[in-house]
Amino acid sequence: MIQLKKIDKYYDSRFQRTFILKGVNLEVKQGEFVSIMGPSGAGKSTLLNIIGLLDEASAGEYYFWDEPAHQIKEKQKVMYHRSHIGFIFQAFHLIDELNVYENIETPLVYRGVKGKERKALVADLLDRFNIVAKKDLFPSQLSGGQQQLVAVARAIIGSPKLLLADEPTGNLHSEQGEMIMSLLKKLNEEGMTIIQVTHNEKFAQYGTRIVKLVDGLVQEDYPVTNRS
Amino acid sequence: MLFKNLLIGWRNIRKNGIFSVINILGLSLGIAVVTLILFWVVDELNFDRFHKNIDQIYTVYEHQQYSEGQELFTASTPFPLAQEFIKEFSEVEQATTFAYVGDHLMRYGDKEIKDGPFLCVDSSFMEVFSFEIKEGEKDALSAPDKMIIDEEVAASLFGDEPAVGKTIKINDGQSLTVGAVAKKIGKNSSIGFKVLIPIRFLQNEYGVDPTRWGNNWPRTSLVLAENADAEGLNAKITNFLKERGQDNTTLYLFPFQKERLHSFSGKNNRIQYIYQFLGIAFIIILIASINFINLSTAKAEQRRPEVGIRKVLGANKFSILNQFLQEKGMMIILSLLLSIILVLLFIPAFRSVSDKTVSIGLLQNKFMLMMLLGVVVTVLVLSVVYPAVYISSFSPAQAIKKAHNGRNGKLGLKNVLVVLQFVLSVVLITGTLVISQQLRFINNYDLGYNHANLVYLPLSGEAKTKHEVLKKEFTRISGVINLTRTDRVPFYGGNSSWGFEWEGKDPENKVLICNMQADRNYFETLGIEMAEGNNFPESYEEVQNQETLKSPKIILNQEAVRRMQLMDPVGKFFGRSGDEEKGTIAGVVSDFHFESLHRGVEPMVITPLFSNPDYIIVRIDPTVFKQTIENIKQAWAGVLPQSVCEVKFFDDEIEGLYNSEVRISGLFRYFTFVAIFISCIGLFGLSLFVIERRRKEIGVRKVNGAKIGEVMFLLNKDFIRWVIIAFVIACPIAWFVMHKWLENFATKTNLSWWIFALSGFMALLIAILTVSWQSFKAATRNPVEALRYE
To answer: If you placed Cys at B105, which of B238, B461, B494, B513 could pair as Cys (CB 3.0 to 4.6 Å)?
Structure first.
């Protein structure tokens, strides 16, 4: 479902070329839960952004649902964002001006889902995540864990095929982190493909496979044996 | 969705507190003031439009040419012209002749009032012009003994009783019967009158013969047939008077509807005020929009993550654009609502400052609506579309980067806009300064006579014939230093003529000379110096006692001597062409201004007073001023118990000459103030924002030992640089604009360098004060606070 072939990402400054990613090959199959790990500056987030069509590779080929993503147009990207990909971020990135309900609803609005249907979908999810009581609160009124919970809800409301999480637990303390990770695991078990970037060894174990990235190169790529 | 975005807009407005207030306040204040300016403009453009025939009415103008390029543009025409035009030209459907004759006494029973202006008219006047009648018939003037009065005169003479049919005695002489009562003339009419009387009045009162061609006094207005060729008629009438003996005079038609804003001579065009005001309106809108742009784009930086997220969630460029437009739409709606409230609040003050009867009802005017729509669209385009396009172009990946480093925003455009704001401010400040300077200059201008402590009493009716008794009584009052009798006071125009002969006259030389009668005290009373020769040798009584006026002694002013090209004038003869007895030049007086300073000093001949005077001018001892005025009034009442005593002050009348300029400069000042205020609050917002962004830098500098003063200088430096750049750009613009404006005055102040320096300094001061408020706060903040994050 996702295939990266010899992906390079670099920036040219006046006298030298700085590589962020160099010759990355990676294939992710449907139903996998991949954890990308590595030290700071290894290119993890860049890789995730390229996979999520937020950034473009400088060289190499990238097939997204067998489509050559290095060739697709802006419009098509918007379409993919609407229906195929969900995002979670370290800093949550909820929209401050919108309350919980509205935040979760936003992707549906952009997809053009009718009001009634939206209501039903959001209500379902609020119920499932146990945050019905918080639906009228604004992000600033929530704890970090709750904010990330809302962010997850928002990411999956459109039932995307792929969920991308950029250090989803980075700003959370461990208890909240575990809560979010179990949730991701559960989603994965229900069939969602997930790729996460993490620093945390323990949370990497929630996935099915670990990819270690060092200085823009894939150093290790192995399945998780002892899934927690 | 729209509702949702408006809701988000509202939340944003609340969240951004001070910035929202600045934006909304600036915009609504701007729109409100622009609405008022448009009220003014529309009122000016609608002047005289209430006449039904307005498109067909033309005024006949004379262009008289004299030697040395002296020329006169005047609407004063010969009496028989109107009737002659009707006979001769088929294009002329109707024609009317009318002349202003000032205020006069009216008596009904024991009620007496002095009011005016009186307008001497022929019977077609009310057909040419569409003044409304309240009581009686419109064609009342077709009967020879009828008059028309306005409702105010009717009320003060007859109270609630019907006026039609009652007889009024004018100046204790002839009596006329009220044929109709006209509604009070609105302020939007350039023809104003309180009383209409037949032309015959002129004959009785002033001895004018309305059949003579040589006398140019009344105005002539024509109604042309609907499809008449005005240009063609213009060509036909050009030499009409030349063929009738006035060989230096050509005639022209001028559309009546243009008269308010365009003068026939091309000078003192009021239309320039329209342009100036529209210019200010545009500047205010621009300044308010610049605030909007600067603050929105500044704020947009902070909304980068949100835009990024929305894009990640599937928003495309268009939906982001749409969202921001609708959000800003909320602000515009709020601003519009607030501006309506402001307009309602400002209207009473605006009425008194502008002397216009504007009301909110003017909003129904099509032009007004178009302009306002234009304003709103301009604001929308300038202040909403640009920031929205700017914000929607953020790319998601860079937008959601965790730490967005603070100093790479698009400050380029912001700088340009702030400089533009300052340029406009400096130009406006300079304009205000120059206008005040010019008005002060005019008020303190040496008119060639001393107008302090001078009063005059207009004489009419019985008072005119009793001027000798009045003089005797007034002279007895101790506070009266001096007094004189004359037929002309030095504010209003008067007669002028070119039919004079003098010794050694070049037959080709034609000079238009103003004339005036006065007794020998005139020059001493007004404080006018003799430049050459002597005053009149004979007093009024001596002049009167001569059986015929033999060889009168006359006095010229210096300008007359110069234009006549006369050497050693004293003792040479001077007189009207055709008169048998030639006068002698007794002396020459220094030039003094006897009209408003819009005109320079014209040639003038002063002849001894030989008929009843129209005015007594009195110089009063300033130490007992009030008491003396009282005494004069008592003395008057002793001589003329039935008649009202009017004492008018020279200083008031002189000020009145520049009423229009004073009013307009007053408005100009207010509008400038608003414009500068709006740019100030914008600057305040921007400084708030810029300083907020440099919080960390300030913290680091302070930790490293920067003093408060140093930090403030650092923060103010940019703004000061903008003001200086703006000043350099603004100076030539301001110079050019004000130079143009001053061309309207014959006597004008200098555009000295300090005016520009002062306005630059004021702009700088305003900027520094505005910015320092924030920079001081930032500089005194504990650096730990700023550095605690990260």
So the answer is: B461
Cα dihedral across residues B215, B221, B226, B228: positive or negative: positive
Give the span between the Cα atoms of B605 and B19, in whole angstroms: 68
Query: Residue A39 sits in a domain of what CATH number?
Result: 3.40.50.300
Q: Which domain holds residue A165?
A: 2-223
Query: Chain A within 8 Å of B400 (Cβ-Cβ)?
Result: yes
Residues A93 and B400: beta-carbon distance below 8 Å? yes
* Nearest residue of chain A to residue B1 (CA atoms): A109
The CA distance from B538 to B545, in Å, is 10
What is the domain count for chain A? 1
How far apart (Å, rounded) are the C-alpha atoms in residues B473 and B618? Answer: 12
Residues 6+ apart with CB under 8 A from A29: A1, A193
Residue A194 lies in a domain: yes
B93 CB within 8 Å of a chain A CB:
no
Assess whether the previous peptide bond of B117 is cis (omega < 30° from 0).
yes
Has residue B704 got a pLDDT over 80?
A: no
Interface of A with B in 34-73 (CB under 8 A): 49, 52, 54-55
B329 inside 8 A of chain A by CB: no
Distance CA B195, CA B106 (A): 10
The letter for the amino acid at B646 is E
Over pLDDT 90: what percentage of chain B? 27
How far is residue B406 from each of residues A223, B292, B298, B696, B784, measured CA to CA in Å?
42, 21, 11, 9, 19
Cβ–Cβ < 8 Å for B421, B287: yes
Decide the pairing of beta strands B513-518 and A217-223: unpaired
Flag whether A228 is in a domain: no
ipTM field: 0.74
Q: Where are the domains of chain B?
A: 1-47+269-404, 75-225, 431-441+658-790, 454-656
What is the value of pTM for the model shown? 0.77
Contact criterion met (CB below 8 Å) for B327 and B8: yes
Chain B's closest residue to A86, CA to CA, is B313
Q: Does B312 touch chain A (CB under 8 A)?
A: yes
Task: Give the Cα separation of B127 and B104 in Å (integer).
Answer: 25
Cβ <8 Å between A75 and B316: yes
Query: Could you give the CA distance from residue B736 to residue B750 in angstroms, rounded to a whole number?
Result: 13
A119 occurs within a structural domain: yes
Angle at which helices A74-83 and A100-111 pack, to 10 degrees?
130
Instruction: Please enumerate in sequence order all residues whose Cβ is within 8 A of that of A71, keeping only pairs 6 or more positions apart, or say none.
Output: none
pLDDT band at residue B404 under the 50/70/90 scheme: very low
| pLDDT value, residue B790 | 40
Contact present, B33 and A122 (Cβ < 8 Å): no
Q: Does B314 touch chain A (CB under 8 A)?
A: yes
What percent of chain A has pLDDT above 70? 100
Please say whether the beta carbons of B403 and B304 come within 8 A.
no
Whether chain A has a CB inside 8 Å of the CB on B309: the answer is yes
CB contact under 8 A, A158 and B314: yes
CA of residue A196 relative to chain centroid, distance: 6
Q: Choose among B12, B316, B400: nearest Cβ to A78.
A: B316
Query: SS in 3 state form for A32-63?
Result: CEEEEECCCCCCHHHHHHHHCCCCCCCEEEEE
What is d(CA B408, CA B621) in angstroms, rounded to the nearest whole number? 74
Query: What's the mean pLDDT when you consider all of chain B?
Result: 85
Q: Which helix (H) or strand (E) holds B133?
A: strand B133-136
How many other C-beta atoms lie within 10 A of the C-beta of residue B684?
18
Which of A75, A93, A98 has its CB closest to that of B400? A93
